[in-house]
Amino acid sequence: LLAPENEFYGSIPESPGRLPKLKVINLFGNRLTGIIPVTFANLSKLDAVDIGQNHIH
Fold it and tell me: Where, if anywhere, are coiled coils annotated (predicted)?
């Protein structure tokens, strides 16, 4: 999931956490807020995450 610097705002949806083969999440440089969804704990194949430059707790 590559979506850096798209000026997305709001919370990160739970839906990517339901993609068991997801390997990369890059949401760098958006306007996302809130917390990382609990469903992301199910992403056993995840190798890299970049959520920098957002307002995530």
Answer: none
Per-residue pLDDT of 2-52, as tens digits, reads 999 999 999 999 999 999 999 999 999 999 999 999 999 999 999 999 999
Q: Give Cβ neighbours of residue 36 (< 8 Å, ≥ 6 apart).
A: 12, 51, 56
Residues in the chain: 57
Q: Which residues lie below 8 Å from residue 32, measured CB to CB, with a gap of 6+?
A: 8, 9, 10, 11, 12, 51, 54, 55, 56
Least Cα distance to 32 among 6, 12, 4 occurs for 12
Q: Distance between CA 38 and CA 3 in Å, rounded? A: 20
The domain ranges of the chain are: 9-56
Amino acid identity for residue 34 in this structure: G
